[in-house]
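Holo prediction — FE2/S2 (inorganic) cluster.
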Amino acid sequence: MGTHARFDPATASAIVAERKASPGALLPILHALQDAFGYVDRAAIPLIAEALNLSRADVHGAISFYHDFRAAPPGRHVLKLCRAEACQARGCEAVVERLADAHGIAPGATTPDGALTVEGVYCLGNCALGPAALFDGEPLGRLDAAAIDALVERASGGSA
Ligand code: FES
């Protein structure tokens, strides 16, 4: 992580302007903003609404409906934990509990030092190796408490 630019309205406007003419532009615009800044800043909502002739509520609704989009900047590292059925059968909730009990981090939250954001996701296509996760895009499988402890350590000690 650590590769995102700080949000700035001029860049956001350029991203919106570049894509607004294509059909179904809303999701591509949201993805492009998130790729650029790591999240979709609230300040981009009126820009998008105006460009696409939508209400701000429509844009806000799309951001909250699709789990892919973040409304706040992520930590320096991102752990995406699968919580879908096959991983549940393999004990992913024990991993979620370990994160909460030993490290005070719940899915959807970022550690106070900004080192790690944990997000719940639904199937990473790695079901046979569940509980599965992605750590900064790197696929991980068979997570257990010890692996979680090591990852949290790596996130807070490792460089961005
Ligand atoms: S259910 Fe977790 S990777 Fe498929």
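READOUT: The mean pLDDT is 93.
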